[in-house]
Amino acid sequence: MDELARVSDTTVRNVRAYQDRGLLAPPEKRGRVGIYDDTHVARLKLINHLLARGYTLSNIQDLIKAIDEGHDLRSILGLENAIGGRWSHERPKTYSLAALAQMFGPQTPTQLARVTELGLLERRGMSFVAKSPALLEAAAAMTKEGIPPRELLDVISLARPHFDAVARLLVDLVVKQLDRYDAGTLPPATDVPALVDAIWRLRPLAAVFVEAEMNRALENAASAYLGGRVATILDRKLSDEAARQAGAPEAHGSGGKA
């Protein structure tokens, strides 16, 4: 068991725990000696891989059971990735504190803490990593137009619950493809590849819905606000013009004698 743990990059304690949970088959008995083989090494490396991806031992137990029942692990992980994988293809970008100061002006520790709490930046030593550089660059451009960073953060804080609610609705539509199967069970192995393809096709369509509706809402809000503002200005101009004309002397009454 010591050798198995060493080869598999784990501990003897973990090996025993996995055996107790049924994740790892017992060794083959040869007399009084238990022999582990490559299948045990492969299983332990799989468990390590799944733990690194964030799965719990209970999740892994379900996956192991599915594999033992004939599911292909690649298909199962493909389904998990189609549902839970990143929806953005942006590459994270690292910014120094000096670069952020150039983009947004000097920032206090409190302001930086708020940015990291919102997940817009992640601190790495003396630098910061942005998961969405495009969002950060857009915020910097708006700051240069005179919008204070604090107000941008306020907007994100207020809007995020609404975005989360919309996202849940759209994700429900996408993964509803699973509803035809019994809850708590994986689809039949033969159905998984087509299901994965369908979910990947639906994901970008959901993003189109979000963008189109957001554009519509922005247009309506801008028209309502700016239209009202322009109407107010025009009304004031017309009132001022009417008052000026009412108070002005008539042109024909100001002539002198010949």
TrEMBL record:
It comes from the Bacteria. PROSITE patterns: HTH_MERR_2. One of its GO terms (molecular function) is DNA binding. Residues 1-66 form the HTH merR-type domain. InterPro entries: DNA-bd_dom_put_sf, MerR-type_HTH_dom, MerR_fam. Keywords: DNA-binding. This is Transcriptional regulator, MerR family. It comes from Burkholderia multivorans CGD2.
